[in-house]
Amino acid sequence: MLWLADGGLAAAVSSAGGLGVISPLAGCRPHGDAVQNLSTQIDRAGAVTSRPLGVNLPLDLREIDLLLDLILARGIGIVVTSAGSPALYTDLLKSCGVRVLHVVSSVKQAVKAKSAGVDAVIAAGVESGARNGHDEIPLFSLIPQVADHVDIPVIAAGGIADARGMVAAMALGAHGVQLGTRFLASRECIAHENYKKAVIEAGDTDTVITLRSLIPSRSLKNTPFTRKLMALEASGSTPDEIRQVLGHAASRRAGLEGDLSTGEAYCGSSAGLIREILPAADIIRLLVEGWDRIVTDL
Ligand SMILES: Cc1cc2nc3c(=O)[nH]c(=O)nc-3n(C[C@H](O)[C@H](O)[C@H](O)COP(=O)(O)O)c2cc1C
User: Fold this and answer.
1) Which of 82, 94, 210, 283 can bridge 103 by disulfide, Cβ–Cβ 3.0-4.6 Å?
2) Which residues line ligand 1 at a C-beta cut-off of 6 Å?
3) Closest residue (by CA) to atom 28 of ligand 1?
4) CA angle 213, 216, 220 (to 5 degrees)
5) Would the pLDDT of 37 be above 90?
6) For ligand 1, atom 14: residue with the closest CA
7) How sure is the predictor about 69, in pLDDT bands with cuts at 50, 70 and 90?
8) Whose CA is nearest to atom 4 of ligand 1?
9) Of 248, 254, 246, which is closest to residue 190 (Cα–Cα)?
10) Distance (Å, rounded) from C-alpha 69 to C-alpha 72?
11) Which domains does the chain possess?
């Protein structure tokens, strides 16, 4: 989670048995040094856990080459690539012994990622918080189709906040799940309290996709900023006009400053399932206990 998944949250998730994934920009200043920041976050996580950790590498980040150097120098074993072509860095990462997971939102992207040599794909459905694919495919249809077309593990993402979603994803052919919004509302997440409160108060109809002319993104619907974006889009504003309103680091303003008037509050449609802010370890414990209960009753 771009500005939010720092070393503290990733370590809490990994310590509890999940795989915590650090974002290079987590907690960073608006035009801050992502490379230095990632180094700090890796140190923070490493001070808390010796369990495996991943790093997310959005391939559109400016500092990509330096981030890659750092990831390799620090011995990170798992990289999640997103927002770009899997053909770019998969060979390099794999030749250095790094496992590569790539985020996809269609069968075509999954097949391309598999051809590029990734170890697993993360199939992200339209329910996902933050950026979405242009085809907006719901997870229930996406997982089995991706699973039918690639012979590597499929990790399901989007709309999963509890064990029911995890069991359903596995029944559809997934080998694992990735949760974003559920961990946004965790105690360890550095998201601003205003933002976390808005997430746990949101119901089933309270998220929406905007920015379809740029990169479709799912956010909380009832914030002044999202309402402004929706009005702009309804009035036929051009992508450039919308870009101007977004400005730089719009999701940081909501995420870290709690400013829901000028910031983009990314949020998945699973928000309606999330009623309290919990420690990351409790979230994982509930997933596992719920899984056991459901599977026993099947
Ligand atoms: C606030 C927020 C920021 C996110 N930022 C990123 C990101 O930087 N890179 C990425 O690959 N996915 C990002 N995601 C997507 C998550 O990794 C995950 O796939 C998604 O949240 C799953 O859907 P869910 O929110 O319904 O759990 C973000 C999600 C949220 C909620």
Assistant:
1) 82
2) 1-2, 4, 23, 56, 58, 82, 103, 124, 127-130, 157-160, 178-182, 184, 266-268, 270
3) 1
4) 125
5) yes
6) 1
7) very high
8) 1
9) 254
10) 5
11) 7-189 (3.20.20.70), 193-269 (no CATH)
